[in-house]
Design goal:
signal; 28 strands; ClpP/crotonase-like_dom_sf; 3 domains; 2-enoyl-CoA Hydratase, Chain A, domain 1; 7-stranded mixed beta sheet; alpha+beta
Length: 443
């Protein structure tokens, strides 16, 4: 079974997309799964169990097929934790998995039969691609302009009958239509990856150009690596006392805190219990250094938490970090009525005096949740308005093999620790706005 779950990271334009599980790990014990068909309304997917193997089928009203891309592998078993999930249990009529990124349970319930269209290969015409994309967006509660949808369908139908165009020309034209549909959805998580075109597009209009953002990121990483700051968890965390007297904690990302050997390479594991233990060990070291800083300064320092380049990752890691910094009797966040309260030692709350958080338009997802949780715990936000992408993302395939991602939950189901709706699509407005040249300095 070692070949079932594969490393599925695609690097394009400097961006790393975890499209499915990076590694497979043994489940606590192999579950006995009854043969049959199971349905998840959360994922809009079927699982067909047959003699210990499970096959995942992506479903929309017009198409159903065993698609390659998804948060679960296309084929897996109960002997291994599948993709970015771990097994919780299996009964006669129910299968339960837990997402490693946020701890949210995923339920599959028994259905009488697999729909007949699932046995057929998908139709890969331009019209089918646009129809499937529109259906996926509707399934996950994203509205589209019906007038524009009629136009996109008409243009897709014309592409299907234009025989004077090359396949590449048709793909380029279809890619532009898909981009327009995703932009109209106004989903800050939405992306499309067309591998044969070498093209990736994410919906999010940045005020700062990609070249300046990337150059600023690289210069910042170089400064960190040349500094006397400590680092841990695969250089995801950097900490130490600054000459200004503030105590710096840079959180570069909230995933890939550990790595495993695969062949001749070390491969980062996106989400795992080992990553949470690594964060715990790093915070223990940070606590010891904070005590030394207090002795040196004669008082506890204030914290400077840097999330400017953090595009998110694990909500469990974000919750663990926030509740270590300031454990309060309120949840970290709530997603679709599932409260997130991941708390572990150490308690750092007595080792510093207040602080501020640096954020930018790059700051997204779990990093935005972290910023808001810290704001509710007395920190102030400085920088730019964040991306406004609080919802977890679902990954789907289009019939022609392109990969899309969209947010899973409606904005009203995304709440902060006080039970207030998070500004999905709008972002967190900082307490102090800073110019882009300060947030993304380039030298």
């Amino acid at each position: 079974m070692t070949g079932i779950s594969k490393r599925c990271r695609l690097a394009l334009g400097g961006l790393l997309l975890a499209l499915s599980g990076c590694t497979a790990s043994l489940a606590p014990q192999q579950l006995e799964i009854a043969d049959g068909v199971y349905w998840s309304a959360q994922y809009h997917s079927y699982l067909e169990a047959n003699d210990g193997l499970l096959t995942r089928y992506q479903y929309t009203p017009s198409q159903c097929w065993s698609a390659d891309a998804g948060l679960l592998p296309r084929v897996f078993s109960s002997a291994y934790n599948p993709g970015q999930h771990e097994w919780v249990g299996a009964g006669r009529n129910t299968l339960v998995l837990r997402r490693l990124s946020d701890g949210i349970p995923v339920f599959f319930t028994r259905e009488p039969l697999l729909p007949a269209p699932c046995r057929q290969p998908p139709e890969a015409s331009a019209s089918a691609v646009i129809d499937t994309l529109a259906e996926v967006l509707t399934q996950f509660q994203h509205g589209l302009s019906q007038t524009e949808l009629l136009r996109w369908r008409y243009q897709a139908q014309r592409l299907d009958v234009q025989h004077n165009l090359t396949d590449t020309d048709k793909s380029v034209a279809l890619y532009q239509l898909v981009r327009e549909v995703l932009v109209d959805s106004d989903d800050r998580h939405a992306f499309v990856l067309a591998r044969e075109l070498g093209a990736y597009y994410r919906v999010n209009p940045f005020s700062v150009g990609e070249a300046q953002r990337e150059l600023s990121r690289q210069q910042w990483l170089q400064e960190l690596q040349q500094s006397a700051l400590y680092n841990g968890c695969e250089q995801a965390l950097w900490w130490g006392l600054l000459s200004s007297g503030e105590y710096y904690l840079g959180v570069l990302r909230l995933h890939g805190f550990t790595s495993v050997q695969q062949g001749l390479q070390q491969v980062k594991v996106s989400y795992s219990e080992a990553g949470q233990r690594c964060l715990q060990r790093a915070l223990d070291k940070l606590a010891s250094d904070l005590k030394k800083a207090s002795q040196s300064l004669g008082k506890p320092p204030s914290l400077l938490i840097d999330l400017r380049f953090n595009e998110g990752g694990s909500l469990l890691l974000a919750s663990q970090l926030a509740l270590s910094l300031q454990a309060q009797p309120l949840p970290f966040a709530s997603i679709n009525q599932h409260q997130l309260t991941e708390q572990r030692r150490p308690d750092l709350s007595r080792l510093y005096q207040g602080g501020r958080v640096l954020v930018s338009e790059i700051t997204a997802s779990a990093a935005e949740h972290l910023a808001q949780a810290l704001r509710l715990r007395g920190f102030s936000l400085h920088g730019q308005t964040t991306r406004g992408a609080f919802s977890p993302t679902i990954v789907k395939s289009l019939p022609n093999g392109w990969i899309i991602g969209v947010s899973m939950y409606a904005p009203a189901t995304l709440l902060d620790g006080h039970g207030q709706a998070l500004p999905e699509g709008a972002g967190l407005v900082p307490d102090q706005e800073l110019p882009a040249t300060w947030v993304f300095p380039v030298r």
